[in-house]
Amino acid sequence: MIHSLRGFRDILPPDSERFTAIEAAAREVFSLYGYHEIRIPTLEARELFVKSTGDTTDIVQKEMYAFTDQGGREIAARPEGTPGVVRAYIENNLAQSGGNGKFFYIGSMFRAERPQAGRYREFEQIGAECIGAHSPFADAESISLLMEILSKAGVSGCLAELNSLGCAECRAAYRAELLAYLKANTAALCPACQARLERNPLRALDCKLDGPRLALAAPCVKLCPNCLDHFSRVQELLSSSNAQFRINKSLVRGLDYYTRTVFEVKTGALGSQDAIAGGGRYDDLVKSMSGPDAPAVGWALGVDRLALLTKDAAATPAATQVFVICAQPAGVEASAKAFALLGELRAAGIRTDFSDFGLSLKSQLRSADKSGASLALILGEEEVKNSVYTLKFLKEKKDQRTVPAAGITPVIRAALSQ
Ligand code: AMP
User: How far does the centroid of ligand 1 lie from the alpha carbon of residue 194, in Å?
Assistant: First the structure.
């Protein structure tokens, strides 16, 4: 017996239906906000993530599924979506194509993290990227979009935590101040944070091990007047929308490319895996990847965690409506007619199923009950001879009647709406 890999899992019904419902809610909101879907490859050149996500980040340094392919190329399974979207934006000249630069993606990401509840090695993200907009309206719209999707997916009362890391200049000054603080506290740093202290001091605040403790006394970002103005506008705009937020001065996010606004949505309902979504502005990334000067803002939300959060909500999988049964003894003609009937009803948009026309009537009726169908259409030699079906109500009254085989669809529709 071959098992699935550690951290990789099967998503079975009804969980799979919960995923589909979340994706459908997101698609609906995306279309209201003028976002268009982009489908990017699962595998990319390893260098893409090293250059954009950053080689001092855990997801690139420790968690990336990277390998050398048959042609000797260094490949990685995407650990996040933003680098691929930015590459696609540059490679396809999307800045020139006149579109609004608002993209969403839905797909699997891969990180070799230690698996536990809510943390997997393959997990699904829904992500949004708005490329080419520098104004605070774009930040506020992006955050409102995220909160709207969470609410549409059935998670109410979410709170976004917000901070600003400032522009390259604010960040440089902050980096120096933070580095001095961390150097004075090296004993409190885990070995990984000590090793990358000089290269990426901000990571220490985002570290799962020592981040929360260090954040208590760490210096905060001092914003230049322009960045301060931008951040104040974002807050004003969000206050006038329905999005609930609060400022968290020690929120830095773990990736290299963030500038100005960063945000995260957390929940108390998922134990230690409390982050549902996170994102921020990345004004310099597109340019640093040899693209145009296109400031941008985006986020990603974890569908697996959202599905855990909505587990108690009534899942509404579309149950079978009609079950087709062959009464015994069913000859070749009766079972062929029953099979054709499945096609006729499905073509009319009626969810129709069957078990095995060769089984006993009792066994087929048992399957019909299990399927949740409210109607069964039974067809045997007698029915074929008289061009009729036996229509059986499987729910309350459990009565049955004979109906003509010709023009069955409206009869079924009427019976379903009873
Ligand atoms: P990140 O790209 O790290 O900012 O993650 C964005 C969101 O993806 C998080 O808030 C989580 O909901 C989800 N996520 C990240 N890593 C995992 C994982 N290993 N398993 C499940 N969900 C994850």
Answer: 24
User: Amino acid identity, residue 155?
Assistant: V
Which domain does 257 fall in, by range? 15-166+223-309
Q: Is 111 in the pocket of ligand 1 (CB under 6 A)?
A: yes
Q: Within a 13 Å sphere around the CA of 299, how many CA atoms are in the beta-carbon half?
A: 29
Q: From CA 409, how far away is CA 349, in angstroms rounded? A: 10
Contact criterion met (CB below 8 Å) for 221 and 247:
no
Tens-digit pLDDT profile for residues 380-408: 999 999 999 999 999 977 899 999 999 99
Residue 254 C-alpha to ligand 1 middle, in angstroms? 12
pLDDT at 316: 62
Q: What is the CATH number of the domain that holds 376?
A: 3.40.50.800
Atom of ligand 1 nearest to the CA of 119: 20
Burial class (CB in 10 A: 0-12, 13-18, 19+), 240: exposed
Q: pLDDT tens-digit profile of 17-67?
A: 999 999 999 999 999 999 999 999 999 999 999 999 988 888 998 999 999
Q: How far is the centre of ligand 1, averaged over its atoms, from the C-alpha of 124 (Å)?
A: 8
The model carries a pTM of 0.89
In 3-state terms the chain splits into helix, strand, coil percentages (rounded to 5) of: 40, 20, 40
Q: Is 134 found in the same domain as 29? A: yes
Atom of ligand 1 nearest to the CA of 59: 3
Q: Which letter does DSSP use for residue 329 in this model? A: S
Rounded to an integer, what distance in angstroms lies between the CA atom of residue 276 and that of residue 367? 39
CATH number, domain at 250? 3.30.930.10
Q: 154, 251 in Cβ contact below 8 A?
A: no
